[in-house]
Write a structure and sequence with these properties.
Layout (H helix, E strand, L loop, with lengths): L1 E2 L2 E2 H12 L4 H16 L6 E5 L5 H8 L9 E3 L6 E6 L4 E7 L1 H4 L3 H7 L10 H11 L4 E7 L2 H4 L7 E3 L6 E3 L19
Parallel strand pairs: 3-4
Antiparallel strand pairs: 1-2, 3-5, 5-6, 6-7, 8-9
Helix pairs in contact: 2-3, 5-6
Bound molecules: zinc ion.
Zinc ion binds next to loops.
């Protein structure tokens, strides 16, 4: 059983070190990315889109060259457990999602996904076993097309020198940096 270029066991180890623990969502995400990689349309360069910030971005970053940092991975807050790989220029792509109808065949996974059981009631080991057993079988797939330009990370433009804090910042933000305009996340020390 392969997940991307890794064996199942290798992928599990990478998830543990990258994500901190073997999260069911990153395991399912591995099968999702694997399926998307196998079924993506013709093309050399692909960008990735995750419809949720939860778990899926890590599977994408482990298995593809698309990361948050390099800008080839866009994370949206739509909240569906789905991802897409699309061709960088034309936007032709493949979307993979968790199909709740198919998921019913794996009760522990179904209950986990729809939050029908409390964490205490869940059987983690069975959940992982079910996900492994299901592989691609709990997934749905569809062809999609996106407008790559709208998903591309905006360029910062010219850089200025903030008169208040002295640090460099994108001039498009105004006459001082956003932190000095009141958006600093830090409390007074
Ligand atoms: Zn500043």
């Amino acid at each position: 059983m392969q997940i991307g270029t890794y064996t199942y066991e290798e992928y599990v180890q990478i998830v543990k070190s990258f994500h901190g623990f073997l999260a069911p969502g990153v395991l399912i995400g591995g099968f999702m990315v694997d399926l998307a990689l196998k079924r993506k349309p013709e093309g050399e360069f692909f960008d990735a889109l995750s419809e949720t910030p939860v778990c899926l971005p890590d599977a994408i970053q482990i298995l593809t060259p698309c990361t948050v940092g390099n800008g080839w991975l866009t994370i949206m807050g739509i909240g569906r457990f789905a991802l897409a790989l699309y061709e960088k220029q034309g936007g032709q792509g493949i979307r993979v999602y968790l199909d709740t109808e198919k998921l019913k065949a794996w009760p522990e996974a179904y209950h986990w996904y729809l939050k029908l059981k409390t964490k205490k009631e869940q059987n983690y080991q069975r959940l992982i076993e079910e996900i492994k057993e299901a592989g691609h079988e709990m997934l749905g797939i569809q062809r999609v097309r996106v407008e790559p330009e709208t998903l591309r990370r905006p360029k910062f433009g010219p850089v200025g020198h903030c008169p208040a804090c002295g640090e460099a910042y994108p001039q498009a933000h105004g006459d001082r940096c956003k932190a000095c305009q009141g958006e600093s996340p830090y409390l007074e020390a």
